[in-house]
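// run 5 | inverse folding | seed 20
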C-alpha cells in the first residue's frame, strides 16, 4: 500500500518498521503495602537492572571504552548503600517500591546537585538515570521496547528532539511521523544523520501496521507499506541512483563556492553535537555555521555542567580550527523541552518562554554556558550567536554579561581569546525591522529562515496542516532577507543563512543576488549547495 507524506530529508530505505512508544516513568504513591513483597520486587528489579547495565557495558566497550564506563558507574550506583538504604527505609514504612525508588533518586539527585564540585554535580544526572531504569523495570516495561538492533525505520506520531537524540543512530535508517513538518527539529536531526525522513503523514498514518517491512523515499514523501518484489527492486534502483548522485557531487568537495560573477560563499554545516562536527568535517564543510548547543542539554538528564560543555565546544573548535565555528547559545523551549527545565505548559510555546528569554531571565543557566564558551575560545575560531533576538536591549544585556564573565575568567587566570566574534540570529520580524540598529552591535548576522518564515507568515512550522502556507520561497520572506542583507552590508558586517532554506537550491540564485556571504546547511547537503553556488 502506498502512502504519501511530506518529504523532509532525502534518503531511500527499505527496512523493518518499529513504532516508538513514549515510555511513561510516572509513579503513583501507595500506602499500606506489604514491606516484604515490595522489598523483594525492588531486589529483583535491581538484579534485572544490573544485568541490563552489564550487557550495555559489554556492547558499548567494543566501540568506545570511555563511553562504556558510564554503565559501570551506573552499576555501582545501583548497589550504592545510600540508594539501597533509602529505598529499604521507605518500603519498610509500607509504601510501594516504585515510589520509594523515585523519592530516593530525587533525594540523592538534589544532594549531588548541591555539592560544590563539578564532578560530583555531574553524578546527579546519573542517579536520575539509574532510578529511572529501576522504575521502568518495576513497571514491567521491557527494555526490549527499545529500538531493534538491525536497520530500522522509526515510526512515531511525533518524534521529539529529545527522543531523536536518544535513538541509537547505528540502527536507524529512516523515520516516518504522523505530525511534524519539514522544519521540525526531528526532521532537522534526520537531515544531519543523512537518513530519509517523511513527516506529516496525517490520516494515512493509521495504515501503518504494528510490524513489517516498509520502503521510504525521503525526497518525494512516498511510503510503501509491505512492498512487493517489484517495489523492492524499484527502491534498490532509486537507492543506487541516489548513491551515484552523491559520488558525482564529490568533485565539489575541495572546490571553493564562487558564483560565475565571482561572489564567494562559505558553505558551512549545521550541527548538534561533537559527532556531527566530525561528520561535517568529513562532508567538506567550510566551518560550522550553526551549532545548536541546546542538543547538549537535550541529550542530558540534567543541566550539563560547565566542564561538560567546555569539553564539547573545545572539541568542535579543534576539529575545525582555524575555520569558523558559530555556537548558538541555548535555544530551548517550544518543541525543544528538557524536563529538568520545568517549563510549565504554554498556550503558545513558539511565542513563549524560550531561547534568549530564558537565558536573560535565569542568568545562572546562561553564565554556565557562556563561561564554558569563553574558556573554549582559545582552542579555535569561536563565534557566539544569540537566538530569538527581538530587541537591541537584549543584545546589549547579553554583551554586558559576556564582558563581565570574560573579566571574571581573566581575573581567575583563565585564558580567553580576544578574537571572539559576536552575532545574532535574524529569525523574528522584529529583528529584521531593527536590523540596521542590530548591525551596529554585532560582527555578523545569520538568518534563521525556519522561525522567520513561521513568524512572518503566522504559520506554525510544526503544523502539517499549514505546510502549504509555511514557505520560505514566499515573496514576504524574500523581502525579509533582502532588508536584512542590505542592512548588514551597509554596516559592513557579513550575513549568512542557517535555516533549512539555505539548502533549498531553488533559492540559491536569489541568495547570490543579495550577496549572502554564508550558507549553513545539514552535512548531507553541503556539496549540493556548493554546486548550486558555482552554477549561479
Ligand atoms: C531557524 O529558526 O531557522 C533556525 C536555524 O533555528 P532553529 O531551527 O533551531 O529554530
Ligand atoms: Mg530558530
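// decoded
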Amino acid at each position: 500500500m502506498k502512502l504519501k507524506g511530506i518529504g523532509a530529508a532525502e534518503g531511500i530505505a527499505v527496512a523493518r518498521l518499529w513504532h516508538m512508544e513514549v515510555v511513561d516513568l510516572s509513579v503513583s504513591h501507595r500506602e499500606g503495602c506489604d514491606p516484604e513483597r515490595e522489598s523483594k520486587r525492588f531486589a529483583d528489579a535491581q538484579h534485572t537492572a544490573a544485568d541490563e547495565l552489564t550487557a550495555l557495558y559489554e556492547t558499548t566497550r567494543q566501540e568506545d571504552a570511555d563511553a562504556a564506563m558510564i554503565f559501570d558507574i551506573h552499576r555501582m550506583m545501583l548497589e550504592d548503600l545510600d540508594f539501597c538504604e533509602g529505598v529499604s527505609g521507605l518500603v519498610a514504612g509500607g509504601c510501594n517500591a516504585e515510589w520509594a525508588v523515585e523519592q530516593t533518586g530525587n533525594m540523592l539527585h538534589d544532594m549531588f546537585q548541591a555539592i560544590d564540585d563539578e564532578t560530583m554535580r555531574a553524578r546527579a544526572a546519573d542517579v536520575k538515570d539509574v532510578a529511572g531504569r529501576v522504575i521502568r523495570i518495576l513497571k514491567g516495561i521491557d527494555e526490549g521496547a527499545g529500538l531493534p538492533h538491525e536497520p530500522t525505520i522509526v515510526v512515531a506520531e511525533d518524534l521529539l528532539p529529545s527522543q531523536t537524540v536518544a535513538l541509537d543512530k547505528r540502527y536507524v535508517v529512516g523515520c516516518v511521523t504522523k505530525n511534524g513538518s519539514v522544519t521540525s527539529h526531528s526532521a532537522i536531526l534526520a537531515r544531519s544523520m543523512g537518513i530519509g525522513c517523511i513527516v506529516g503523514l496525517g490520516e494515512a498514518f493509521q495504515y501503518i501496521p504494528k510490524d513489517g517491512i516498509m520502503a521510504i523515499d525521503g525526497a518525494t514523501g512516498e511510503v510503501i507499506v509491505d512492498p512487493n518484489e517489484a517495489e523492492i527492486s524499484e527502491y534498490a534502483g532509486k537507492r543506487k541512483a541516489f548513491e551515484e548522485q552523491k559520488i558525482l557531487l564529490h568533485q565539489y568537495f575541495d572546490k571553493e563556492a564562487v558564483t560565475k560573477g565571482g561572489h564567494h560563499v562559505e558553505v558551512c554545516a549545521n550541527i548538534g553535537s561533537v559527532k556531527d562536527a566530525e561528520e561535517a568535517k568529513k562532508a567538506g564543510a567550510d566551518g560550522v555555521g550553526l551549532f545548536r548547543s541546546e542538543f547538549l542539554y537535550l541529550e542530558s538528564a540534567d543541566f550539563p555542567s560547565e566542564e561538560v560543555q567546555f569539553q564539547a565546544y573545545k572539541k568542535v573548535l579543534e576539529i575545525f580550527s582555524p575555520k569558523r565555528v558559530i555556537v548558538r547559545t541555548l535555544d530551548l523551549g517550544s518543541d525543544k523541552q528538557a524536563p529538568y527545565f520545568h517549563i510549565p505548559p504554554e498556550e503558545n510555546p513558539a511565542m513563549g518562554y524560550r531561547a534568549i528569554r530564558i537565558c536573560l531571565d535565569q542568568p545562572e543557566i546562561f553564565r554556565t554556558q557562556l563561561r564554558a564558551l569563553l574558556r573554549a575560545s582559545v582552542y579555535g575560531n569561536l563565534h557566539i550567536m544569540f537566538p530569538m533576538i527581538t530587541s537591541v536591549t537584549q543584545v546589549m544585556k547579553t554583551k554586558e554579561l559576556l564582558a563581565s564573565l570574560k573579566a571574571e575568567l581573566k581575573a581567575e587566570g583563565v585564558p580567553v581569546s580576544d578574537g571572539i566574534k559576536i552575532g545574532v540570529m535574524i529569525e523574528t520580524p522584529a529583528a529584521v525591522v531593527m536590523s540596521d540598529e542590530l548591525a551596529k552591535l554585532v560582527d555578523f548576522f545569520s538568518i534563521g529562515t525556519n522561525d522567520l518564515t513561521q513568524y512572518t507568515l503566522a504559520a506554525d512550522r510544526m503544523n502539517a496542516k499549514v505546510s502549504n502556507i509555511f514557505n520560505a520561497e514566499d515573496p514576504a520572506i524574500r523581502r525579509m532577507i533582502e532588508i536584512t542583507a542590505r542592512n548588514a552590508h551597509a554596516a559592513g558586517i557579513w550575513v549568512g543563512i542557517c535555516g533549512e532554506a539555505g539548502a533549498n537550491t531553488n533559492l540559491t540564485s536569489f541568495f547570490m543576488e543579495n550577496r549572502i556571504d554564508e550558507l549553513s546547511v545539514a552535512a548531507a547537503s553541503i556539496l549540493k549547495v556548493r554546486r548550486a553556488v558555482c552554477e549561479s
